[in-house]
Structures
1.
Amino acid sequence: MTTKVAFRNIGMTFGSMRVLDDINLDVRDGEFVCLLGPSGCGKSTLLNIVGGFIAPMEGEVTIDGEHVSGPDPRRIFVFQERGVFPWLTVEQNIGFGLFRQAEAEKRARIAHYIQLVGLRGFEQSYPRELSGGMKQRLEVARALAVNPDVLYLDEPFGALDSITRLQMRRELLRIWQAEKKTILFVTHDIDESVQLADRVVVLSARPGRVQRIVDIDMPHPRDLSDARYLQLRDEIFGEIGLAHQV
Amino acid sequence: MNEERRTQNEELRKGAKSLRTFSEFFILRSAFCVLVLLLWHVAVVLTGATIFPSPVAVAKGLTDLPNLASYIRDSLFRVAAGYSIAVLLGVPVGLALGWWSWLARAANPLIQMLRPISPLAWMPLAVIWFGVSNVAPIFLIFLASFFPIVVATMNGVRNVPQVYVQAGRNFGLSTRALIAQVVFPAVLPRIVVGLRIAFGVAWIVLVAAEMIAVDSGLGYMIIDARNAGKRYDLVVGGMLTIGVIGLILDALIRRTETLRAVRWAFRE
C-alpha cells in the first residue's frame, strides 16, 4: 500500500516547553492508526498539525506528497461530540459541508449517511435532543458526507459512558471498513487502541517522541479475550510503564 | 434503541410540565395584581390622600384623556425607529469587533468611555442639533440601545467555541461564509439577550427624553399633566401605561428566545 500521510521530523515548542520532538511516521492509504500516549504528551497537538490547524515549528507533514499548509475538506477533523452545530438539525449538520454539491446529490448523501450512522427518524432533531453517542455519530456522518480521504479523530469517545463507547468503536470499525478511509485516531486508552488500530503508535511522555510502533496483527472483529489480544495489550501497558493491576 | 426512546420521553415530560406551570403562574399572578390594586385603593381611602390618586381615579382619568392613543403611538414610533437603527448598526459592528481582535483593541477604550455616559447627558446636544422634533429622542434611544447591543454581540463572538470555527474552516468556508454560517448563528442567542436588555434601556430613556425634547408621547404626558394642572391621576396613569406597554413589549421580545434559530441555547 502507498503512503498517505507522512510526518517528517515534526518538532514543536510552546514557549519554553518542548511538546513534540522529531516525529517521523508514515501512514498508509486506508490504514487505521492510533496515536497513543499519556495526557500532555502532545498527541492532540500532533493531530492539530496534521489537520492543518497549527503549523509545526520544525519538519513538515505531507499528504499524497503534498505539503499540508491549512485545513482542507479532503481531510476532516472530528472533535468530541461538542463539534456538531447545535443550531442546525441532524440533516442540516450532515449537509453543512455540501455547499458545493448540487441539491439532488446533497439530498442523496444526507440520506445515505443518516442511514449509515443509524440516525433514521432523527433527521429533523436538534443535537440537544440527542444522546452523547448519537451526537458523536452525527459528527462522524457530517465528516464522511464530504467524502474525505482521511479522518482525524481526537479522543472522540472520551466523553461517552463505557457501554456506549464500546458500541461506538464497533460502529466506527464498520464504517471504516465500508468507506475505506485512512483514519488517525488519538486516544489515551490502551484497550481502545488495541481494539481499533492496524498499528498503534506509542508516544512518550513530554516531549512526545515515537517510542514504539506496535502492529496489531489481528483481523476484525477482534476477540477481546483472545490470547493474542491480551498479549498485545500487555506489551503496550509495559511500553508505557504501567503494570495493569489495580 | 433505548437511549433514543429515553430522549423522546424526556421531551414529552418537559412539555406537560411547562403547560401546568404556565396556568398556575397565570392564576397566581392575576390574584397578586388584584390584591395590590385593592390594597392601593384601601390605603388611599383610609388615609384620605388628596394628591395621590386611587386606582379608580387613575382609570377614570385615562379613559377621559383624548390624546392617550396618539401619545402611545408617538412613543412607540420613536422607540421603534431609534431601536431599529441601533440593531441594524450595532449587530454588524459587534460582529466585526468580536472577530477582528485588533479592531476591538483599537476601539475598546472609546466604547468603554462612551458606554457609562447616560444617554440623557446627550440631551442638550441633541436638542441643539435636532431641535424640538422626533429626531432628538430617536437619537437618544439609538445611543441608549447601541452600546449594549455592540457589547453583547462582541462578547458573544469572542465566546464562540473554537471547535465550531475550526469545523467551519475544515469544510473549506471562506471568512465571510464562516461569519455568516457559523459565527452569527452561534452568537445569535447572546445577541437576542443583548437586544432584550437594550430594549429595556431604550424604553426608560424614551420617557425621559420625551419630558424635554418633544411635545407628545407618554413622557410628555406625565410632565404635562403635572405642569398643566397637577393632574396626579394622569401622572400615575402615564407611569402605569409605560409599565404595562414595557411589560408587553418585553414579553414579545422574550418570545424570540423560542424561535427555532436560537431555541437550542435556552432551557425552557
Note: The helical segments of chain A are 43-50, 90-95, 103-116, 132-145, 162-179, 190-196, 227-240.
2.
Amino acid sequence: MDDRKIQIFLDSLLPLLKAGVAFTIPLALISFALGLILAILTALARLSPWVLPKLIARFYVWVIRGTPLLVQLFIIFYGLPAVGIVLDPFIAATIGFTLSVGAYSSEIIRAAILSIHKGQWEAAFSVGMTRTQALRRVILPQAARVSVPPLSNSFISLVKDTSLAATITYTEMFRTAQQVASTSYEPLLIYCEAGLFYLLFCSVLSALQNYLEKRLSRYSAS
Amino acid sequence: MIEILNLHKSFGELQVLKGIDLEMEHGKVLVIIGPSGSGKTTLLRCFNLLEVPDQGSLSLSDIKINFTDNKKIPQKSILALRQKTGMVFQSYNLFPHMTALGNVMEGQVTVQKRSKDEARERALQLLTKVGLADKADAYPHQLSGGQQQRVAIARAMAVDPEVLLFDEPTSALDPELVGEVLKVIKQLAAEGMTMVIVTHEMKFAADVADRIILMDGGHILEQGTPQEVLEHPQHPRALQFLNRISGEEV
C-alpha cells in the first residue's frame, strides 16, 4: 500500500466512525427498542384468545416478512409523499426497521413464550394471579432468557441492515463511505474499511450477548 | 365448608368425572386415592378451577359457582376461589428465576399487594416452618426435590388459603426424600389446616386422613374414614385396587 492510500484510509477513519456512532448505532438502537415492544405486543396478540388481534398480528407478520425490507423503505420514504406523507429520512428509516424487527422478533418471542412449561402458568394461577400478572411476573422473564440468543441474532442483522438506509438518503456509516469512496476514488479500500467497522460493532454485540446469557443463566443449572 | 355437587368433566369425548358429590368440613384432611386414570387429579384441579367442570356446582366458604356447558365462569369468581386455595404440584413448579424466598413472596406481593417487608417476613416464617430458613436465598435448581417441594408448600401457604390442595406431592421424589415432605404435611394436618391430598402413599393416607375417597372410572367408589375405606371396602373393584397397592408396598 502506498502512502496516499494509507493517508486516505487514516483520514476516513474518523468520519466513518462518527457516522457509525452518531447515526448507525442510534438508528439500530431506537429501531430495536421500539421493534421489541412491537414484537412483544404482536406475540401476545397472536397468543391471545381473541380473534381480531390474532388476525391483525398474523396479517402484519405476513406482509412484513413477505416483502423485501428495501421495498418497504422505498414505499415509506419515496412512496408515501404521493399521499401527502413526507417523512424525514431518519423517521422513515426508524419506521421501516421497527416494523421489520417487530415482525421477525414476534415469532421469536411467541416461540419463547410457548416453550415455557405449562406448569409455570398453573403455578402462577394457583397463587391467584391473573393472566397478565402471570405473563409479566412468571412467563416473560423466563421467555426473555430463552430468546436472548435469537434476539441477539436479530439485533446483529439489524445493525447491518441499517446500511439500507443509505438508499433513502440517511447519511449513516455506509452512505458516508459511499461519499468518501466517490471523492477519493478508492472504493475497495473504503468499503473494506466500512466493513471492518460493521464487524467491530457486531463483535461488541456478540460479547454483550455472551455477557447477557451468563447473567440470565444464574438461576439455571444448565 | 367445601361442597361439590354432581360434578362432570370431559376432555373431548373422554368423560373423566361422571357426577362427583362430596362435602368436607373446615380443618379436616381429605385424601383421594384410586388407580391412575380414575379422575382423582382432575377432581383436585377442579377445586381451584385449573380445570373448569362442565356441569355441577362447587362451593367454598362464601363462594358458590354453578357450571353448565359453555357458560363462561366470571374471572372474578375464578380469582376469588384461587385466593382461597393453595396448590402443591407433583413436579413442584417453582418459579426458576426466583429464589426460594422470592417464590414464597411472589403471590403475596403480586396478588395480595402486601408490602415487600411484610411479605418477606411472612415468607421467612413459612420457610422456617418447612425447615428451609437457611435456603431462603437459594434458587430452585440448587435445591433437592424434597427441598423444592417444601418451598412449594410454603409458597402455597403464603397467600393464607382456606384449603391446601396437593397433587401427588411425593410422586416425583426419590424415595429417600419422600419422608421430609410427608412430615411437613402431617405437621400441617396436626395444626388443623384444611387439606385435600391426592396420593399413592397408602400408609401416609391412613395416618393423615380424616376421610378417604377412593375413585375409579370417574366415580367415587368408596368414601369414609381410613379404616372404613382401607380395611373394609365394600366394592369389589376397591378391594382389587387396595390389594394391588398393598402388594406393591410389601
Note: The interface with chain B takes residues 117, 119-120, 122-130, 133, 137-138, 141-142, 145, 218-221 of chain A (CB under 8 Å).
